[in-house]
């Protein structure tokens, strides 16, 4: 058991507006967390602190035993896998799928003159196969479907064997089939005892894979509830978080929610 993230009284203020308000949260390496909350609740801001991209305005954030603000972040960041639409925009459309994943070893996007070991290439190919992308390794990133691009982003994020994996809306904009394929793959990955601590932001309870263990509900920058999935994903607490009556149902580890 290793604590991978510890936030104590973390607040973020931008132009006089409080975006995160006194957040206390601890994540262990064995836990797989989902963050849920309405638009503008502060989910992405919270993830940016976990990714060591953002310093809190107040309070203390410790990521992989390094205090944000008191550390050389260039050494910390390669230990964190991060997949988000903003990161994906930095990937050149002409890059091959193999190179998108391979370049993670150097924390760059876009292959230049780096020399990669055979070991790196074999690892990238293994990761691509795990995320059902092996047949696409020579294709250009920009030519892939949304679902394939999302899986490539995750493959890139796990290429370096991160100690903490952060996923910002990995299933956003996917059709039902692509979503289910991704949720299944994420569930398999999350269930492995060798996977790192995982934090995933999502808008929909339907996107929570089996194998995820914990949830944090965020509204107006504050934590409504945080803890095990069973304790947190109740109709009452989800209704409070989204400000309307919701009924949550769980079937064999998957969730659905509808207004009542
Ligand atoms: N640089 C900034 N300056 C001012 N306000 C900001 C800044 N960045 C974010 N915000 C505001 O902070 C709030 C939280 O943003 P954040 O992106 O973290 O929310 P979110 O929960 O991820 O939202 P969404 O679900 O819509 O992606 C929003 O109201 C946003 O407009």
Automatic annotation (TrEMBL):
GO terms for molecular function: ATP binding. SUPFAM superfamilies: P-loop containing nucleoside triphosphate hydrolases (SSF52540). This is ABC transporter ATP-binding protein. It comes from Naasia aerilata. InterPro entries: AAA+_ATPase, ABC_transporter-like_ATP-bd, Metal_Ion_Import_ABC, P-loop_NTPase. Keywords: ATP-binding, Nucleotide-binding, Transport. Residues 5-245 form the ABC transporter domain. Pfam families: ABC_tran.
């Amino acid at each position: 058991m290793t604590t991978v993230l510890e936030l104590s009284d973390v607040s973020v203020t931008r132009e006089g507006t409080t975006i995160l308000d006194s957040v206390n949260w601890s994540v262990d390496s064995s836990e797989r967390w989902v963050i849920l909350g309405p638009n503008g609740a502060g989910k992405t801001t919270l993830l940016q602190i976990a990714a060591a991209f953002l310093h809190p305005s107040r309070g203390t954030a410790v990521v992989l035993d390094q205090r944000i603000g008191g550390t050389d972040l260039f050494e910390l960041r390669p230990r964190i896998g991060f997949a988000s639409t903003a990161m994906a925009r930095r990937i050149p459309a002409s890059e091959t799928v193999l190179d998108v994943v391979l370049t993670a070893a150097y924390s760059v996007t876009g292959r230049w003159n780096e020399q990669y070991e055979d070991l790196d290439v074999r690892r990238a190919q293994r990761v691509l196969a795990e995320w059902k992308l092996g047949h696409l390794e020579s294709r250009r990133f920009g030519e892939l479907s949304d679902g394939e691009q999302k899986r490539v982003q995750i493959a890139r994020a796990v290429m370096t064997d991160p100690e903490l994996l952060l996923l910002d809306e990995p299933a956003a904009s996917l059709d039902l089939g692509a979503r289910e394929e991704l949720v299944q793959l994420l569930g398999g990955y999350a269930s492995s005892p060798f996977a790192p601590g995982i934090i995933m932001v999502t808008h929909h309870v339907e996107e929570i894979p089996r194998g995820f263990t914990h949830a944090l509900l965020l509204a107006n920058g504050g934590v409504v509830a945080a803890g095990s999935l069973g304790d947190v994903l109740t109709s009452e607490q989800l209704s409070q978080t989204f400000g309307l009556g919701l009924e949550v149902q769980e079937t064999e580890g998957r969730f659905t929610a509808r207004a009542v």
